[in-house]
Amino acid sequence: MLSPIDIKNRKLKGEKVSMITAYDYAFAQMAEAAGVDQILVGDSLANTMLGYKKTSDVGMNEMLVFVAAVCRGAPNTHVVADMPYLSDRDPQTAYDNARRFMDLGASSIKLEGTPEGVIEFLCGHGIPVCAHHGLLPQTAENFKQKGRTEEEAASIIKAAKFTDDLGCFEMVLEHIPEELGKRITGMVNAVTIGIGGGKFTDGQVLVMHDALGMHLGKNPPFAPKFVDMFALGVEGFRKYIENVKSAAK
């Protein structure tokens, strides 16, 4: 299992880091068998697994169930547990919730933005933190690319440097211009993980359902589909139905 130090050493060696989301035992097993570096149990499960409209609709009770399942399915992989909306509203609450994830087997936690006093408290109490900058789905008013104006770019750079100085070993850069992703990657010690952050980040993360083509509709422009599992699943179900109907009575 890669430790936070191992992951940071990847950056020093110029080796890319692969991260994928997974939310249950079976797909965690699949991701580990494939050799992925990190599994993110993202609050995106609100949309992909539970059918909610917003990631902020999922809470700690649901996240604990999914994180536990993934840790059981991928015991030898670095599992990043996503802190759901308001679970990090103050330092002590954040620590208590992060500790619950770590006790289940998570290797680190991820949180969005720079909640006051939280990151320094977590890092100071032995919780490895992956930061998240750019588009912040939990609080975003829209899902347009962030950092296109000088003001927005400066704000994202400031946040990235701030969390890097606090000791975050890693940070997700979501839906920002490629040049901004490259610039941040060159100025921080933390490993940068892009999701729509361009090809110059230290690694990439995708939502499993996008990468495997597990849903109807179009993927985000920065999320390539590597297999059409939705179509394969529908075909499998149809063959099962045909088998049932054709069976001798």
Written overview of the protein:
It is a single chain. The protein is an alpha/beta fold. The protein contains ten helices and eight strands. The protein has an eight-stranded parallel β-barrel with strand order 1-2-3-4-5-6-7-8, surrounded by seven helices. Strand 1, helix 2 and strand 2 form a beta-alpha-beta unit.
Describe this protein with a few key phrases:
249 residues, alpha/beta, 8-stranded parallel β-barrel, 10 helices, 8 strands, 43% helix, globular
How many alpha or pi helices? Answer: 10
- Which stretches of 5+ consecutive residues score pLDDT under 50? none
Number of strands: 8
**Order of H and E elements:** HEHEHHEHEHEHEHEEHH
Give the biggest beta sheet.
Answer: 8 strands, parallel, barrel
Supply the helix-strand structural class. Answer: alpha/beta
Q: CA-to-CA gap between the ends?
A: 52 Å
Overall geometric form: globular
Q: Can you give the helix content as a percent range?
A: 40-55%
User: What would the average pLDDT be, to the nearest integer?
Assistant: 96
Strand order of the largest sheet: 1-2-3-4-5-6-7-8
Beta-strand percentage range: 5-15%
Task: Report the radius of gyration as a whole number of Å.
Answer: 19 Å
